[in-house]
Design a protein that fits this description.
Helices cover about 25% and strands about 20% of the residues. The N and C termini lie far apart (about 65 Å).
Length: about 800
Amino acid sequence: MTVPIGSIECSNSHCGHGNPASAKVCAACGAPLLHLYLYGIGSDLRSLAPGTWLANRYYYLGDRRFLDGKPGQVPEVPGEVTRLLLSYLRLVEHRPPVPQIYGVVKQSNFSREAILLLEGAPIGPDGSLLPKLVDQWAKATPLRQLNWLWQVARLWEPLQDAGVTATLLEPERLRVGSGWVRLLALKDNAGRSPSWAEWGRWWVQRLRPHPALESLVSPLLQQVALGNCDPPTLVANLEQLITQVAAQDAPVELAVASLSDPGPSRSRNEDACYPFSQDQTRGQRLGLAIVCDGLGGHEGGDVASRWAIEQLTTELVPFVEAAAQAPPSPELVNATLLRAIGMANAVITQRNVQEGRAERQRMGTTVVLALVIDRWLYIAHVGDSRAYQITPTGCHALTLDDDLATRETRLGLGFYRDLLQISAAGALVQALGMGNSEQLYPSVRRMVLDEDCAIVLCSDGVSDFDLIERSWRDQFPARWGQGDPGQTVAQMISLANQHNGHDNATISLVQIGATRQIVPDPARLRRPVMVPSPPLDRELEVSPAANPNNPNSFQGDDLLPSVVAKMPQTELVTPSAEPSSIPPEGRSPLVRSPWVGRWFSLLALVIFGGGLLALVIMPLVRQLVDANAPNTPAPSPTPIASPSGINTTPSPVPSPMALNVGEVLQIKPQAAALGLYGPDRTTLVGWLPPNSTIQILRISLPIAPATPTATPIANPPTGDRPSGPPPGLTWVELKICTLGRSNPNSSLASGATLWARQADLGDRVVAAAPLPLPNGCQASTITPDAVNNPP
């Protein structure tokens, strides 16, 4: 990569010196330089030559990649929030997988259309695009494959809400950087929303699990493709498999070190940390680190942060010690973290009440903590102290600040880089000690540890002005065994005091060695139980919108100005009149909200009214309809929706064309692939691509269920498959005459005899042209029977 001299300006406000792109620190002031790579969206980029400057700021590297030459300056942002841009804003909590809007380059000599620039796109530290998931899948370890699949499955529902699930069906947009799945850019569904089953078929056709996992993962994905397994169920089952694989793996190795310093401009240190300053811990499997930044100045910020550390360690240290003997479930860990944070909040809040502290006199604190249990990492967070993960492929922010700028971004009211220019942008909307636990919404994030990395927790005295992003490559070794954690935190505190210096500086470093992985023994892995389990933690949930009339909204000594509530709203978002009382989507408050009871009451009223309607009114209507209806036979039941169709929920499907034994048919070129099953009609063998030709060999009658209420089990917990085909389906035995194109599933071949559901054929097939076909499809003579029952 060749970039001219002077391509990167120092981001320090008092400097601005130009430096070559290869430089790590500014030649004038010695501050670390920020190498900010951006991904561009715009049709005119196809003709843009590498080496071109746009807006006298963005250097084009090729492949839609830009280097920001002036990262210290505010970028120009879009003038309006379109539907696609709103999708990015509302998915801000799902970083790092989802990139975010950085700015735009508006009309220039090169382009008439605005070029959208994304930050956090899958671009490595050297400026190159990260590899595609489909290219790296076969090289990944079993644990990493499960981790990638788990991440993508968790993204489905948020992307579905934003109308961009088409993103997950394009291999070019699915990139991987070590353990992270990264999306290159979002793709709008544009009126056609891919189904969850379609995603399952996409995965089955392209990616084969590791041999140690194939017997367990492939049936799960086949159930997804058939519409029998929804996203929460798949996520829950993958978590069971991850836990089993991790139990056979080599244990992770940990080294934890913390350090806190008042800084050059403060006489009092209001920060606190665990392990305590100068302490270091080493061990395997388990680890705990905490950073708190006190709020309230001389009124007691140092007291609040110290109490928070004492209360959290009182709750969590015994829990960690017990976890060494009996690993807890993710649900138990999640509940324990929420309870510990709630109790710390209660202690500080009670002190505020006892001393009559209100509004600006309240003392409070932020908190961010990391808990490692085996190969699971938990990050819990309230306030604006941050957590980062350092890997060989990048520096990833794991938390979102609970401040005004982030809240307005998530609501779609503006763009983050632009909102930061508001004077109250950093005003916190929640912290410990500002109210009871009903109004506190901690975020808890869970991650799989499948690689060496460093977890950095820090107060804003360290993270301000992108200091972590500017210095991570030189300060934090990601590989286990490189560097000394105690020296690393001391060097980082010195750097923060030198280039920030406006606040206390506190940092806690958790160095993790997790690369050593053992291929699991398939015989020791149990098939997960197909029971839906809604996730307890979504990605980086953002705190509820602050109520300007509530004294719990503040920034240090300053309250959130009431003028914030008067900011202009857009037509795309309608915030609640009392946003502080409604928890954000995906998060449960520590204490049940009073609104829950009201909603349940309303739901009960609706159910009662519906039952009354069914019992009294509907029979009268049915009698009237029957009295005037012609005497015609009752229609046959609607066939079950095809697994190859777009919709997987039961819905009307096209009437299947009349099928004749011996007839040769062709799958339409524009039709979806056809699912084919083995002789037992329960095992999905593969997908027959469009343009293929088939010959009908036999048609079976639907098999009635044993009892009127019997429901087939898609994947029984015992691991046994059903003894026969699902009831109520008409099956067609067919022979594959020709394959329409190269088939990704090697289990299908010309001449094979397999089964398909008649409903799946639907309107996908037409009569084949009278041409010579191989495999004796047109030469053979088949005697059609009135009914061909299955053997």
